[in-house]
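Before relying on records like the one below, remember that each one covers exactly one chain. Contacts with other chains, cofactors or solvent are not represented anywhere in the record.
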Amino acid sequence: MRLREKVALITGGGGGLGSAMGRHFGREGASVVVQDLRLDAAEEVAEAIRAAGGRAIAWGCDVADSSAIEEMFDAVAEQFGDINVVVANAGVRRVDGDGATPGQVAANPILEMLDMTDEAWQRMIDVHLTGAFTCTRAMLRRRLPQELSSVLVGISSISALGGYGPAHYAAAKGGILGLVRCLALNGGPLGIRANAICPGVIPVPGAETDPAVHEALSLQTPMRKVGEPDDIAHAAVYLASDESKFVTGHVLSPNGGLEMV
């Protein structure tokens, strides 16, 4: 088992990508903390991990709420020990007030900005970037004084690499890359490794995007298909494991070649 000594927090763990990563982490021996704003969704994933013989607990909170995150880290430490892997996966692609038509991809994201509210912009930053920060800070507050190693796997997006998608989403995902690189550059001597995954088009259960949009995107992808949540889960397991012990500051982008288009 590649993650036997890991206590891994997966934020947004009740969603499509998060649940896939949770199952794979549990299968590889990690003690998994499934965090989600929707506690029922987190519980469902944690139960599936336990049913398969793994160790998991669910936690419901907002990743942008720093006091709730600190409370979660303290509670997990009592049951599993300190969290030593953070998979910053929590995110949304759309929020109320961002000028979008639900389920559709805008012809020009710049036009959406004209109607985007300040609150919509801030909420996108809070969920993606502030959430990654609060969880990483909580981990380092507990690990650094003990001179123990820590791993951050930031789930960014191909939007951060190529400017695809809504402006607030691309900016938030780009911020995750900045956080990862800062930690990687300055944290090596402190036992910190930080890497990012920038998925391409990955349809997930419950997503509202029109299937025709996925079909159009698959035709733009050199491999002529979209990805699956398991594609991202495999990458996350690798970056969290000791197999990647000499890898930091890296951006792994399972996108079927879309980055080149």
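The chain is about 45% helix and 15% strand.
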